[in-house]
Amino acid sequence: MREENFVVYEHEELSEEESISRSESFYSEMNKRRSVRHFSQKSVPEEVIQNIIKTAGTAPSGAHKQPYTFCVVSNDELKSKIRKMAEQEEFINYNGRMSDEWLDDLKKFGTDHIKPFIEDAPYLIIVFKKSYNEGEEGKTRNYYVNESVGIAVGFLLAAIQNAGLVALTHTPSPMNFLAEVLGRPKNERAYLNIPVGYPHSSANVPKIERKELDEIAQFYR
Ligand code: IYR
User: Fold this and answer.
1) Ligand 1, CB within 6 Å, residue ranges
2) Structural domain includes residue 221
3) What is the pLDDT of residue 1?
4) Which residue, by CA, sits nearest to atom 6 of ligand 1?
5) End-to-end CA distance of the chain
């Protein structure tokens, strides 16, 4: 590879103490994140949404293809349409499409097919994955698409928390209707619907515990 394709990596090294302290405080902030299902209708500056999507775009992706489109829906008519269609699919999910084990696993979250958050949240960030690209020279490939989009959404959720907002990762399966409603091209598939905004003043969240470090990590020292 020719040298002109590379630049020097700029790195500011932290002291070990600083590194420990910053990792602790980032963890402490992220540990406050909860999936919130009750949104206030309070508006959020679009600039904040633009910045969190720019943050998502900094995530690593297969061959640096950035195989995603983040569709930002704030239009009330579109939101109502999406809510109606999501509730139709969810009604079928909760009344036969999901197994008894699945319904049982969801009991503690108190979810059902009614989804007011789709209309209440000021923004829906609807994430589409690009299975391939359709350009002037025809189709080109993307790689590790699910991994790439998943990592970008992780960055997005962290940026939402950092901006003092809340979100829900909503998967109204099947999600094909989202591509139809938003007129997406045929190389794009809906990946997640993420309502973003402020929590409702009486929002509550389920009492759940997170796994301890030794339950999610193994150290091979
Ligand atoms: N998509 C449905 C069901 C649902 C599934 C899982 I896995 C959850 O963690 C929560 C809900 C819904 O949104 O209600």
Assistant:
1) 90, 93, 106, 109, 111, 170-173
2) no
3) 65
4) 106
5) 36
Q: Does a structural domain hold residue 217?
A: no
**Residues above pLDDT 90, as percent of the chain:** 96
Domain housing 40? 36-199
User: SS3 for 78-90, per residue?
Assistant: HHHHHHHHHHHHH
Joined together, the tokens standing for residue 134 give: 């359709």
- pTM for this model (two decimals): 0.96
Question: Which residue lies with its CA nearest to atom 2 of ligand 1?
Answer: 172
**3-class secondary-structure state, position 193:** strand
Q: What is the CATH number of the domain that holds 51?
A: 3.40.109.10
In angstroms, what CA-CA distances link 176 with 63, 128, 129, 143, 209?
27, 11, 12, 22, 33
Within 10 angstroms of residue 82's Cβ, the number of other Cβ atoms is 23
Nearest-angstrom CA–CA distance, 58 and 117: 28
